[in-house]
Design brief:
Largest sheet: none
Shape: elongated
Number of helices: 4
Distance between the termini: 14 Å
Order of helices and strands: HHHH
Low-confidence stretches: none
Strand content: under 5%
Radius of gyration: 16 Å
Mean pLDDT: 94
Length: 124
Amino acid sequence: MSEHAASGESDFLGRLSELLARSQQSYQGYMERGKTFLYASRLKDSNDAIRHLILENAHLLPQEQQRNAQKLLHHLDAWSRHWEACHLRLQPELTDTFVFDSEVRFPGAEVAALMDYHHRRVRR
């Protein structure tokens, strides 16, 4: 891998790590504060940013990590469609409860593998 490609991959994974932390913080707020639309909206913003980042940069990763990123992308695509349908149907205010089910669960093992890969690369 060229130095430029390695730098791009490292930048991508660093930004992904930050966005995942932001999503986790929003999800935690959502769960702890009544599952309101305010926190669901913050989570949607973070997830949309993650989705865009993966679509633009997953090609920088080795094959195995591309598969892990694709699992996350699959989850985010399904989650976003459910979020959008629920939002359209309910037209919620910021303090309203906003809950829906998504059959595609968060791929925790794959995201952990991506972040483990990132942390191993950073320590080099």
